[in-house]
Amino acid sequence: MSEPRIERVVTRGTLPIEPASGRFEEIPIENNVWIVGDDEQVVVIDASHDAAAIEQAVGDRETLGILLTHGHNDHVNAAVELASRLDALIHLHPDDLTIWRDTHGDAVPDIELAHGASFWVAGVDLTTLHTPGHTPGSVCFAAPSLGAVFSGDTLFQGGPGATRWEYSSFPQIIDSIRTQLFTLPGDTAALTGHGEQTTIAAEQPDLDAWIARGW
Q1: Which of 45, 51, 129, 134 could cross-link to 81 by cystine, CB 3.0-4.6 Å?
Q2: Tens place of pLDDT per residue across the chain (215 aa)
Q3: Which helix or strand (DSSP H or E) is residue 63 part of?
Q4: How many structural domains are present in the chain?
Q5: What is the CATH number of the domain that holds 13?
Q6: Which domain holds residue 119?
């Protein structure tokens, strides 16, 4: 039996934004898709931009689920196609269903995520942490046996995720980071939705500075 491992797939696409001009523009963006498992079975964390590339990375392994950290377009836009390709179920926190529908309309996820829900894959326990703030239904997935937490867009190297939308909350994301992520061991790797990974210990000293700057 092979050892469980974490694999990173970087996918590329565009993200619609509304700048000061009021006209939507598409900006290029890279996303991290994380695959957790062994040679036999995996789960996929986020489904961004390129279902074919993610399917190729999974190969012939059984996919036990597609776990979404939140409902933003760049994290879910390949989810429906990927689920069909891999014959897998899509998991999303219900508080992000409205955001999901902006991308997928009436096609709904299969299973509602809840705080504390566990997923077993290749002997690894992934625990769902509800971490609202970036979006109402943002979640992270903690994998203590792998020394990692998949932090989505809640925590990055250098601070919390953006809270510029009307449904976002900066105080809430700070509370989520403080109570859900900063209680993890300091050497826990934070595997982010974009960019390079960090650790809990590397980010903890800057919490007060983030609060002071307000973003």
Answers
A1: 51
A2: 699 999 999 999 998 776 656 677 888 999 999 999 999 999 999 999 999 999 999 999 999 999 999 999 999 999 999 999 999 999 999 999 999 999 999 999 999 999 999 999 999 999 999 999 999 999 999 999 999 999 999 999 999 999 999 999 999 999 999 999 999 999 999 999 999 999 999 999 999 999 999 99
A3: strand 62-67
A4: 1
A5: 3.60.15.10
A6: 5-213
